[in-house]
């Protein structure tokens, strides 16, 4: 069992948990993820390592509740435990001094961008971050990003905070100057797709972190496969980071929809019965 | 009645129509009476051929004699000298290609049902409550790490624990058992049997650390640096192969590993009581002809689909166990033999709609001696399906090997280990099971686990590892001593 040490709700749907997992924390690096399972009946869900503390032996995750498992996880608080917590998985980000790097995070995608930005900054890069969300309410970790960036640009779709625009607008402006050496874009599939369209036109290399459906996270099942440069790759072991200009995002997004029907059944049943063991049985 | 006149005893099974709708074990096992009759068929050969057919050389006539004398406790003791998991081997060994293939009775009549008798003895033991752990010698301070809890890892760990070593198994998944738990379905190998075997190994003092991915959570080099005096790598060959034909990434295309893992390990067949979903649809195509393909096909059938099995050679070459093929046919799987997929076709939304196949005919024998299937021009057809399951084999998963320094691999990415000692190119590191042989069998993996335990024991005592000749000598000496 893995104990939850802290839990903070950022909004109704987004929350942060700090989980005790010393072996994972010991090896964790920026860009990697974990797989967790809440209980015996639970599914294995992948979540990015948003932060880690080797001395305390903890991993921080930031989660958006969008279905049964993420909603159920949200009900667990400091002191509660989860059944399984596996990691760190995936290949760590390659941290070097590239020069100027733009780190764009959309929605909960800001959390996984954070440790990458921090390491890039440590390695001597000039880090310009774009923190994007649909509205002010959903905006995440602006403060934390400020600590590790030379400059932070905030955008919201509805203009409730920061600039009223999509993340691609400041990204385009920055890349147009010709001063950007590398872009990191992490967020929903559609956001990454359009970030890549923007940067490809301007010839700026862009790394994305893909969130395909996974089961084991160790290369054993192939559920997470995606086409990159016309070749099939497994996101969990070959990624999760890839050259965004090579990724077939339409395929990725289609594959993410594979279980919509069942996810809805599972979620509705959960909401109906929340906490009521008899109803669930 | 003369022994040779007694027919081979049939094993009671669930009716095909009934079992096609449930996940309970197909085969029900012999009753005591049936076991007594079947055991009495054994000729007790002086030079038993059957023993040579068993990869771990079980003393077959001896254990059968004990059963004939209605002494299952003695039978199980004899079995356990060579196999750690008779309940598993009795169920899943390809007996018709091993022990039973060479049985003398099989020359003119039907072979003795060795596997079923082995299973009977093991199930009798299980019915007596948890097996008592044998006295384990005082703890030796040397520590051994085992990677993977499949049959190879569990066997090696158990044997080393019996010798008094401090053994820890590191398992990537959240349940121990390897393919026995994530691959082979409940209806062929009930999961409580696997759990029992794992608990037995733990009762010997072995610690099983789940959720530990070696190569990520910790590397083999770190294991050696952090107090492990030797390491046995038994991480299986779990990397699903695809055909590289167009359409394999459409929604509704699974690898057999994914399909079976969802169904078995994650219990998706009990969705929504269990959270993991599985999507089966009304019509399923399974590509392949091995045990894995049969398991995927029969699982899909039990989830309500009509199933088409597509295999490029003929019935004679089908590599799956005969019994499984027979069961699959009885249950109503449609076999499309001498048929090969060309592409998978999807609808507008990217969901599988059809699979295009071509007829094959057998041409000249290839390197493996089997006649090579060649496509018949112009024979393309399409089969409408909702789901395609690729069961064409597995390859070596590079996750662990890539992260280990100085570990020699062959061109398929399998670990190179000495055939007789299982020593690898790396000091103190041994390897066995599917990661060395490529996808093979449970009993071979178990045999490798035993061999590794012996090598590791010698290594830790500073004795030279056994060469083939030395091993032969010792075996001969042992035989003399027991006569
Ligand atoms: C490498 C990686 C890192 C991720 N990091 C984060 C993160 O830091 N924060 C966060 O909020 N989310 C993250 N996700 C997404 C997260 O895993 C899914 O939101 C979660 O699994 C949804 O489960 P659910 O039962 O709540 O919702 P469901 O209703 O089951 O699913 C909602 C959607 O989530 C996706 N999904 C469902 N099951 C899985 C699965 N087993 N694996 C992957 N995706 C799935 C599907 O696209 C689905 O449509 C990450 C995904 C990956 C692959
Ligand atoms: C569906 C299916 C049906 C089969 N049917 C039969 C049959 O009827 N008869 C038969 O004899 N054989 C059968 N086999 C083959 C048989 O199961 C295998 O040959 C055997 O299990 C190999 O044993 P192993 O111990 O080498 O590896 P595995 O059983 O594969 O176990 C390896 C273990 O290592 C773990 N692991 C992997 N990587 C790591 C890592 N990096 N760190 C930690 N742990 C790791 C895995 O999770 C797994 O638990 C079948 C195989 C499959 C897939
Ligand atoms: S272990 Fe397998 S091969 Fe050996 S005797 Fe038993 S069933 Fe036959
Ligand atoms: S070969 Fe057949 S008949 Fe002879 S001892 Fe073995 S099982 Fe018995
Ligand atoms: S999640 Fe199973 S191979 Fe990637």
| Main interface by residue count | A-B, 43 and 40 residues
Instruction: Give the terminus-to-terminus CA distance of chain A.
Output: 24 Å
* Biggest sheet details of chain A: 7 strands, mixed
**Regions with little confidence, pLDDT below 50 for 5+ residues of chain B:** none
Q: Which residue ranges of chain A are poorly predicted, with pLDDT under 50 across at least 5 consecutive positions?
A: none
Please give the oligomerization state of what you see.
heterodimer
- Provide mean pLDDT of chain A, rounded: 92
Structural class of chain B: alpha/beta
What is the overall silhouette of chain B? Answer: globular
What is the H/E string of chain A? EEHEEEEHEEEHEHEEHEHEEEHEHHH
Number of helices of chain B: 20
What does the radius of gyration of chain A come to? Answer: 18 Å
Structural class of chain A: alpha/beta
List the helices and strands and how they pair.
The complex is a heterodimer of chains A (281) and B (483).
Chain A: E1 2-9, E2 14-20, H1 22-27, E3 33-37, E4 45-48, E5 51-53, E6 58-64, H2 68-74, E7 81-82, E8 84-89, E9 100-106, H3 110-122, E10 126-133, H4 142-148, E11 151-156, E12 163-164, H5 168-176, E13 182-186, H6 189-202, E14 206-209, E15 225-228, E16 231-234, H7 235-238, E17 241-243, H8 249-256, H9 260-273, H10 277-280
Parallel strand pairs in A: 9-10, 9-13, 10-11, 11-12, 13-14
Antiparallel strand pairs in A: 1-2, 1-7, 2-6, 3-4, 3-8, 5-6, 14-17, 15-16
Chain B: H1 16-19, H2 32-40, H3 49-53, H4 60-68, H5 72-80, H6 86-92, H7 99-102, H8 105-108, H9 114-127, E1 143-147, H10 151-162, E2 166-170, H11 179-182, H12 191-203, E3 207-209, H13 220-225, E4 230-233, E5 239-240, E6 253-255, H14 256-265, E7 283-287, H15 291-302, E8 306-310, H16 322-331, E9 334-336, E10 339-346, E11 352-365, E12 371-375, E13 381-384, E14 387-390, E15 394-395, H17 398-402, E16 429-431, H18 434-437, H19 442-460, H20 468-482
Parallel strand pairs in B: 1-2, 1-4, 2-3, 4-16, 6-14, 7-8, 7-14, 8-9
Antiparallel strand pairs in B: 5-15, 10-11, 11-12, 11-13
The complex binds flavin-adenine dinucleotide (2 copies), iron/sulfur cluster (2 copies) and FE2/S2 (inorganic) cluster.
């Amino acid at each position: 069992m893995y104990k939850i040490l802290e839990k903070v709700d950022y909004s109704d749907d987004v929350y942060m948990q700090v989980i005790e997992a010393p072996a994972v924390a010991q090896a964790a690096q920026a860009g990697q993820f974990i797989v967790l399972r809440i209980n015996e009946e639970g599914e294995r869900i992948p979540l990015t390592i948003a932060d880690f503390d080797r001395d305390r032996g903890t991993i921080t995750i930031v989660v958006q509740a969008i279905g049964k498992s993420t909603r159920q996880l949200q009900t667990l608080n400091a002191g509660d435990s989860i059944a399984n917590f596996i990691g760190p998985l995936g290949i760590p980000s390659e941290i070097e001094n590239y020069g100027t790097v733009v780190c764009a995070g959309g929605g909960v995608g800001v959390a996984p961008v954070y440790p990458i930005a921090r390491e890039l900054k440590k390695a001597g890069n000039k880090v310009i971050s774009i923190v994007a969300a649909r509205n002010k309410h959903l905006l995440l970790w602006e403060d934390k990003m400020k600590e590790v960036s030379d400059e932070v640009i905030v955008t919201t779709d509805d203009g409730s905070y920061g600039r009223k625009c999509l993340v691609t607008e400041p990204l385009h402006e920055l890349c147009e100057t010709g001063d950007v050496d590398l872009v990191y874009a992490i967020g929903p599939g559609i956001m990454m797709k359009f970030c890549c369209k923007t940067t490809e036109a301007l010839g700026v290399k862009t790394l994305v972190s893909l969130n395909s459906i996974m089961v084991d996270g160790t290369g054993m099942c192939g559920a997470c496969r995606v086409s990159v440069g016309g070749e099939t790759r497994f996101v969990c072991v070959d990624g999760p980071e890839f050259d965004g200009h090579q990724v077939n995002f339409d395929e990725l997004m289609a594959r993410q929809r594979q279980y919509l029907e069942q996810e809805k059944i599972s979620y509705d049943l959960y909401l109906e019965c929340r906490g009521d063991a008899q109803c669930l049985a | 009645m003369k022994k040779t006149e007694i027919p081979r005893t049939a094993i009671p099974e669930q009716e095909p129509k009934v079992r096609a709708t449930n996940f309970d074990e197909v085969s029900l096992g012999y009753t005591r009476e049936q076991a007594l009759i079947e055991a009495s068929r054994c000729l007790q050969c002086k030079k038993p051929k059957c023993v040579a057919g068993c990869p771990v050389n079980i003393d077959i006539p001896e254990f059968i004699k004990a059963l004939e004398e209605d002494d299952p406790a003695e039978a199980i003791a004899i079995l356990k000298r060579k196999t750690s998991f008779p309940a598993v081997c009795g169920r899943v060994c390809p007996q018709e290609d091993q022990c039973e293939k060479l049985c003398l009775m099989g020359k003119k009549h039907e072979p003795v049902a060795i596997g079923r008798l082995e299973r009977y003895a093991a199930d009798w033991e299980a019915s007596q409550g948890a097996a008592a752990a044998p006295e384990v010698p005082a703890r030796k301070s040397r520590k051994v790490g085992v990677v993977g809890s499949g049959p190879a890892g569990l066997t090696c760990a158990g044997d080393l624990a019996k010798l008094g070593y401090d053994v820890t198994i590191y398992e990537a998944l959240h349940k121990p058992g390897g393919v026995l738990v994530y691959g082979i379905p409940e209806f062929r190998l009930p999961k409580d049997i696997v759990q029992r075997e794992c608990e037995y190994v733990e009762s010997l003092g072995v610690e099983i650390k789940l959720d530990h991915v070696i190569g990520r959570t910790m590397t083999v080099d770190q294991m050696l640096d952090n107090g492990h005096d030797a390491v046995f790598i038994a991480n299986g060959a779990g990397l699903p192969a695809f055909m590289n034909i167009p359409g394999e990434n459409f929604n509704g295309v699974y690898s057999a590993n994914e399909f079976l893992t969802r169904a078995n390990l994650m219990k998706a067949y009990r969705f929504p009581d269990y959270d993991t979903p599985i999507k089966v649809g009304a019509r399923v195509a399974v590509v392949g002809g091995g045990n894995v393909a049969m398991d995927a096909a029969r699982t899909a059938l039990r989830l309500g689909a009509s199933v088409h099995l597509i295999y490029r050679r003929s019935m004679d070459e089908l590599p799956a166990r005969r019994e499984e093929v027979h069961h699959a046919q009885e249950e109503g799987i449609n076999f499309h033999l001498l048929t090969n997929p060309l592409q998978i076709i999807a609808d507008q939304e990217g969901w599988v709609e059809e699979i295009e196949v071509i007829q094959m005919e057998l041409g000249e024998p290839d390197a493996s001696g089997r006649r090579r299937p060649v496509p018949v021009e112009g024979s393309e057809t399409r089969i409408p399906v909702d789901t395609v399951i690729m069961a064409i084999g597995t390859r070596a998963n590079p996750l662990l090997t890539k992260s280990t320094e100085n570990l020699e691999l062959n061109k398929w990415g399998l670990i190179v280990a000495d055939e007789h000692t299982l020593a690898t190119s790396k000091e103190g590191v041994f390897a066995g099971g599917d990661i060395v042989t490529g996808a093979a069998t449970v009993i071979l993996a178990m045999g490798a686990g035993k061999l590794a335990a012996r090598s590791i024991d010698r290594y830790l005592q500073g004795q030279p590892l056994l060469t083939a000749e030395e091993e032969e000598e010792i075996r001969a000496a042992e035989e003399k001593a027991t006569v």
